[in-house]
Amino acid sequence: MSHVSQELSASRELGLELPHHRITFSFSLLLSSLVLILFNTLSGKHHAAASEYDLQEAEALLEWKGSLLQSEALRSWSPPTVNGSHCNWTGITCNDDGKVTQINLSNCSLQGKLDRLSFSSLSNLVRLDLSRNALHGNIPNQISAFSHLVFLDLSMNQLSGILPLSLANLTHISVLNISDNMLGGEISPLPFANWTKLSHLLLSNNLLSGKIPPEIDLLTNLSLLNLQENQISGSIPPSLGNLSKLTVLQLHINKISGHIPHQIGNLTRLKALTLSINNITGSIPLTLERLRNLMYLHLSQNQISGTIPLEINNMRSLVSLDLSANNLTGFMSPTIGNLTKLTLLHLAQNQISGTIPAQIGKMKGLISLALSTNNFIGFIPPSFGNLTMLTKLWLHENQISGTIPPQIRNMKSLDLLHLSENMLTGSIPPTLGNLTKLTSLILSKNLISGTIPPQIGNLTKLSFLALFENQLNGTIPPQIGNMRSLISLDLAVNSLTGFIPPSFGNLTRLTYLSLMDNKISGTIPSQIGSLRSLNQLDLSQNQISGPIPPSFGNLRNLTGLHLFENQLSGSLPKEIANLTHLQIFQLTGNKLSGSLPQICQGGSLTEFRASHNNFIGPIPQSLRDCITLQALRLQRNQIAGNASEVFGVYPNLVSIDLSFNRLHGELSPYWGECLNLTSLRFTSNNITGRIPPQFGQLSQLRLLDISLNHLEGEIPKELGRLTMLYNLSLKDNKLSGLLPQELGQLSNLELLDLSGNDFSGPIPKQIEKCNKLRSLKLDGNNLNGSIPFQIGNLENLGEILDLSQNLLTGEVPPQLGELKKLEKLNLSHNMLSGSIPSSFEELFSLSSVDVSFNDLEGPLPNNKAFLQASLEAFIRNKDLCGDVQGLRPCNSSVISRGDKKKARKGAITIVLPLMGVLFLLFASAVIYFVLNRKKRIVENHNQGRNPDLFSVWNYDGRIIYEDIIGALEDFNDKYFIGEGGYGKVYKADLPTGQVVAVKKLHPHEDGEQIDQRSFKKEIQALTEIRHRNIVKLYGFCSHPRCSFLVYEYMERGSLAKVLKNGEAMELDWIKRAKVVQSVAHALSYMHHDCNPPFVHRDLSSNNILLDMEFEACISDFGTARLLKPDSSNWSTLAGTYGYVAPELAYTMKVTEKCDIYSFGVIALEVIMGKHPGELLSFLSTSEAKGIFLKDLLDQRLPPPTDGEMKEVVLTVALALACLCSDPQARPTMCHVSQKLSASKELFLEPHDTISICQLMDLRI
């Protein structure tokens, strides 16, 4: 017997002892005593049994306590004493019989498992709450012993395993909460039949998977079902609609798919329905309208489509409606204003269009409104001023226009206003300064102009202010310095002028400050050094001058410092060394001088760019030891030092450029340990010694340029391991020896320049394996032997093949004629003999050739590059002849292959016209007979409308000839909007509501009808064209009375018209650059991405059309081929005067190069605001020297900013390249398109001194 039992037994014995000191008493007293003794005897037996049961419960609880980690909450749990009971323990509640009915140990820091708890010893338990602890392990099957349990809460623990099926024995359970654990497996439906009293089922935030069992409707008393934040999949069972008592249904954050069943509409007591963050598809069921008690409807972050049902606007109990992040379309109905109880309305990240209903202003209790990332147009409703309780307003990423309404000043509860990425215009209302609760104001990426109002300084609680990428001008108000709560301030990409206010020094909480790409001048105030919390500082691309303040050394939390492209001068302050957390440091394009300070002291620097300055002295020791470095750009300075000593090993380095400095010494073999290096440039220094063979370990290297130095010795064979290399330049050194055969292993090599060295021996034939080579320069060496014929296999060799100034002998291999892409060939200053191969006639891309100073003889190939070259390209040879002034004509008795071709062409010139005449006479007779017969058939069988008279393809089969004729009133002049080279253009408003442009084609001058089969074939080809910058051709009509083409309608009309009228002022420099870029993209697509390629043939500003956003599209595309499908590339069409390439005057052959010339004219016209006219004739004369770029710019616009000037310079430079008189020297449209899309890095300053000649000399 235990100590507890002994104590209880002793108590009973003492209680049964009778008193002996009383001898006399009455009968009634005796009777009473006997009854009392009998009762006590019986009672003693009862208490003995109860105590044994109590002892069993206490022992069970103490045993479980012993399995847990010590908890202060269970201190009172100790063996019962004479005067104590376990019913008095913390968290234990007993009934009148002393049996445990409730255990409440919520949030008691319990750690352990449940499997040591004797469930059978606590069979009277009604309520068990162990929530908010750290219990782990499985839920034991023995929990079934709690058969009287009504309330079970095990939530917010670390329980795992599955839901035991033994839970089915809890037939009295009303509340079951096991949420916020790590339970897995599927939900079994087996217990559902027994849980008839269950009202609350909470299993949220576990790892449950599988489907929701359809048998869920057996839980007929269920009022709350929460399965959120699991991994439940499958669809929502329609049987849920049978749970008529359900008030809360939470299934969000799962993997549920399928549609929302319409049976959900049967849950008329429902107050909360949350299905967010699933994979639900389909539309919102209309039956949800029945849920008139619903207060919370959250369906966000699914894939729900369709429109928002109007019926939702009748659910007047709604307090929170979140449909964001779906695929909803359509419009917002004004009846949404019926939902006057709404406090939250989120429709963001959908595809909703139309205007924002003014009726939202009726929702006066609204606290949060999110309509961002949709397609809303129109204005911000002034009625928003009624939303005086609104705290958050998200309207960003729409197409909202107009101004910010002044009524917004009434929304004094706002703490967040996000209007970015719209088309808002006007100025920032000064009354925004009244919204003193604002913490975030985001107006970036709009068209807002004017100045920043000083009243903005009243927003002293503001943490985030973003006004970047607008059209703001004027100075930065010093009142911004009052906004001491600011964490992020971004005013970048505007036209702000003046100085940086010293009051910025008050913004001591600021972590991000960007003023980049403005017109800010003056010096950097020293007060910026007070911003000790700053992480990112970007003042780049301005006109800031003067020194960098020493106070910058206080910015010890700075990770990014961007000061590039300013006019900063002086030396870097030594205090910069204090910036030990600095990761990115950009100083490129300033006038800084002096030595580099000790940077990277903290070992955090990853990117240091200080090129195009005047730095001198050595690389600092701290930079040598900076192993975190990934990019180092110090080119075009005057940095000195020994290259073998000033650099360390950089395991993370990706790119380094120290070109055009004064480094000396040798290249360190330790570079071979920088295994992540992709680009290594040491061009134009004074480096000597040999190329370290360790370079062969740089397996990621793509660019190696160590040209213009004093390197000597051989090329290490180990460089053949650099299989990723695409650019290898070793030119202008003193390298010698043989070219290693291992060069053939560089399979990705595109650019190889070994010129200006002392290499000897043969050109290795293995070079043919470098089949991606575009440029091969081996000139200026002592190479000997013959030219390997294998070079002819380099099919991508296009830019140049230069083998000049060597000692090459033998004949020129005819295989070089396979280099179809080659543009420049230089074989001069060698000892080549024999004739120039006739295969060179096939070098159609060749634009420049030089074979002078050789021992060649015989006729020149019949190739334009040879025939148009100057005499200097052929001098000092043995006996070359041909049609070049200064060379003797070839012997007429010796007919070259080219001469034979000319003879054949002459015969063809005579014979073909004769055959053509005969064929035309025969064909005319046949056509006349067929047409007359067809006409009689038509007249007999077609009266009035007849679809067989015409065809409309790829548009709308219901639109027939009479529809369009009717819409245009038989081509009435009032619908006339323009005229191109091939017909007049009309605007047609069709009965369907569609607006199209109709081009009525001019009839052939000779009266000839369009050949229908050819016409259809060309049309079908053109309607397959898909490009955003080519006007969509919908189809055509061909009819005996007239023929026309149907195009999409472009609202602003032609570029020529826009440049002539007031709209030109809206076409700013950036928009103009984008117009040119769009035309280039379209031509590149036509020339390079279509098979076969298309040539426009008549490109001019009249057939460049603009939409409302000034997006440019090419029209009249392919019309020439439609009208003359047999013309191929030989053309008698004159094109548009002023845009026609000059070579058409004598070749009459239309090629892509003709389009490129026309593009050049258009590009200049866009920049000048008018046709370049006489400028075109000046370009090839000495008069071009006196023409400056600034004199060509459209004077109607303000002068370009620095950022805009880069766009202008690149556009004009490319335009001039396209206007080259030699067609083959013009760049391809693919090249032009790529250059216009790439980053602009043209450093030509000052801008007012840039001449046309400079731009013509640029190699881009």
From TrEMBL:
EC class name: transferase
GO molecular function term, any single one: ATP binding
SMART domains linked: LRR_SD22, LRR_TYP
Residues the entry annotates as binding ATP: K1000
UniProt keyword terms in alphabetical order: ATP-binding, Cell membrane, Glycoprotein, Kinase, Leucine-rich repeat, Membrane, Nucleotide-binding, Phosphoprotein, Receptor, Repeat, Serine/threonine-protein kinase, Signal, Transferase, Transmembrane, Transmembrane helix
InterPro entries: Kinase-like_dom_sf, Leu-rich_rpt, Leu-rich_rpt_typical-subtyp, LRR_dom_sf, LRR_N_plant-typ, LRR_R13L4/SHOC2-like, Plant_RL_S/T_kinase, Prot_kinase_dom
Reactions listed under catalytic activity: L-seryl-[protein] + ATP = O-phospho-L-seryl-[protein] + ADP + H(+); L-threonyl-[protein] + ATP = O-phospho-L-threonyl-[protein] + ADP + H(+)
Domain called Protein kinase: residue spans: 971-1244
Subcellular location field: Cell membrane
Gene3D superfamilies: Phosphorylase Kinase, domain 1, Ribonuclease Inhibitor, Transferase(Phosphotransferase) domain 1
Protein name: non-specific serine/threonine protein kinase
Organism the protein comes from: Cinnamomum micranthum f. kanehirae
